[in-house]
Design a protein that fits this description.
The structure holds two protein chains of two kinds. By secondary structure, chain A is of the alpha/beta class. Chain A has a single domain, classed as Rossmann fold (3-Layer(aba) Sandwich). Chain A is built from ten helices and ten strands. By secondary structure, chain B is an all-alpha fold. In chain B, helix 1 crosses helix 8, helix 2 packs across helix 3 and helix 8 packs across helix 9. Classes of the chains: A alpha/beta, B mainly alpha.
Chain lengths: ~260, ~270
């Protein structure tokens, strides 16, 4: 049996009385490669933030590596959906990655930390850019640097929030190949609305639209996904969002929002 | 030009110029890269309340401004982080309430406040020796704090949410940074006054950041830029008998314009081949 590293039980999150997550239970095991898919506003980012302890659920229990999320997240690497920063920020790529090695007040970055940062940059194929100012990178390069920043502390779990937004298809492919390389070393949870990715690379999927609909191997999952959206998933992949919405309104008692 | 150094007020002014430049180079760097320029503006104006309180109680206004500006910093931080009031609204409230308090305190003080104007617009040529000592001590506190917490300050300046995830105590560090801004405001009041403080906190760094992308180098470069431009402003103000605070700010502004042109022409030259 592989060890369970994250467990959510009956988690509910509300923002101003609007339910964002309802009765979500989830179990992530060592070396899982899980994709969480669902429409925009379905609560995907919120779910990741609950695991990270950035959002405290109104109800339910969250355990990360057997502890509360604020302690457990030391073993998590995190790639946010957007990183808002000043493109002129005076910092080199290497120093940005080095920040991922932060261990606490009064503990300066050591030679070992620096080597780890260089290694992480090598893993994501960005070593040659180490002295570049952080704002002078393309979207795809930047995303790789932020992956390096997330994996530099050698996490046991990597959380990726829409990692391929704004990256061209060619870069996306090499990005997912990078993930395949990383998944030998850590569990990966990927939040995305890119269905194509899921079928090619991921082992398990869960569908999230306020409620978590499924959690298991992907074949069965894809069928279930059709239930969530009520239309063939190819259609969603090509984007007909109004269909998705109509289904939700019909089924949803609180659809006054 | 050298002979003016025989005057004590000139030596004091020179010392003051160096002290403020060190403060501005270090704290100004965070102010600019964390984009808290207007929070700093709010803190500096709110500090005027402390100056008024100093008049009212008959103590050194600079000393009275220390707790007052720290309270203002903590107030802005608390309102913007803990309540639903947005940060710029919090700034707007504290900025004006602080100044209003200052005006009321001064109106209540007996007699009339002869050097009030110098606290508003600065007067580097009349900085008393005792205030220099206060500035020196505050500077040492600032430098020590930055040596201890530079890692945290630069992390929250870059990306606060990620810093939180990796275990940086982001809220405490943000408040500490605002307190550093408050202390720098106090250092600067004598030289440029509460109204012009923002110029010294932003312009030297704004000039220097065009030429480096390392935070530590940026601090050092900002300090030297600050020293050169404030001393130049000081000399102009002495030679042409102009108000010192305003002259220094104008020299800083001109410096920024010139450096931008310089940088632009450099880029143009580079892209030529």
């Amino acid at each position: 049996m592989r060890k369970e590293i994250v467990s959510l039980k009956n988690v509910e999150v509300y923002f101003n009385d609007t339910p964002i997550l309802e009765n979500v239970s989830l179990s992530i095991k060592q070396n899982d490669f899980l994709a969480i898919i669902g429409p925009n506003g379905g609560g995907k980012t919120t779910l990741l933030k609950v695991i990270l302890g950035l959002i405290k659920p109104n109800k339910g229990e969250v355990k990360v590596f057997g502890r509360n999320p604020k302690e457990g997240r030391k073993l998590i690497g995190y790639l946010p959906q957007y990183t808002f920063f000043d493109p002129n920020f005076p910092m080199s790529v290497l120093d940005v990655v080095l920040m991922g090695r932060y261990r606490g007040i009064f503990r300066n970055y050591s030679e070992e930390d620096k080597n780890a940062a260089l290694n992480a940059l090598k893993t994501v194929g960005m070593l040659e850019f180490k002295d570049r100012q952080i704002g002078r990178l393309s979207g795809g390069q930047l995303q790789r640097v932020f992956v390096a920043r997330a994996i530099v502390r050698e996490p046991k779990l990597l959380l990726l929030d829409e990692p391929t937004t704004g990256i061209d298809p060619e870069m996306q492919k090499s990005f997912y190949e990078l993930l395949l390389k990383l998944k030998k070393r850590m569990a990966i949870v990927l939040v995305t609305h890119d269905i194509g990715v899921v079928s090619t690379y991921v082992e398990k999927i869960a569908c999230l639209n306020r409620m978590l609909f499924y959690h298991g191997p992907k074949e069965a999952g894809l069928k279930k996904l059709e239930d969530v959206y009520q239309c063939p998933i190819e259609v969603i992949a090509h984007g007909v969002p109004h269909r998705v919405l109509r289904r939700h309104e019909k089924n949803d008692r609180d659809s006054s929002v | 030009m050298i002979e003016i150094l025989q005057y004590e007020f000139m030596r004091n002014a020179l010392m003051a110029a160096i002290l403020v430049s060190v403060t501005c180079g270090i704290v100004g760097t965070y102010v600019v890269i964390k984009r808290i320029v207007f929070i700093s503006g709010g803190i500096s104006h709110a500090a005027f309340g402390g100056i008024g309180l100093g008049y009212l109680l008959g103590i050194n206004p600079i000393l009275a401004a220390i707790p007052f500006s720290i309270l203002a910093a903590l107030g802005i931080g608390t309102i913007s982080k803990k309540t639903k009031v947005s940060e710029d609204t919090a700034i707007g409230i504290l900025w004006t309430v602080g100044m209003a308090l200052g005006i009321i305190f001064i109106a209540l003080s007996p007699g009339y406040a002869p050097d009030l104007f110098s606290y508003l617009f600065g007067s580097i040529l009349t900085v008393p020796f005792f205030d220099l000592i206060i500035m020196l001590i505050l500077n040492m506190v600032i430098i020590l704090t930055v040596i201890l917490f530079h890692k945290e300050f630069s992390a929250i300046s870059f990306d606060e949410e990620f810093s939180e995830v990796i275990g940086v105590p982001t809220k405490i560090m943000y408040f500490l940074l605002l307190c550093l801004v408050a202390l720098s405001v106090v250092v600067l009041i004598r030289v440029v006054g509460v109204i012009l403080v923002i110029a010294l906190l932003t312009i030297p760094t704004a000039i220097s950041r065009q030429f480096t992308h390392h935070i530590k180098k940026l601090m050092v470069l900002s300090i030297f830029t600050g020293i050169i431009l404030t001393v130049t402003g000081l000399c102009f103000s002495y030679m042409f008998d102009l108000p010192s605070g305003a002259t220094i700010v104008l020299v800083l502004g001109t410096g920024f314009l010139l450096s931008s042109f310089l940088k632009k022409s450099q880029i143009l030259a580079k892209s030529d081949f």
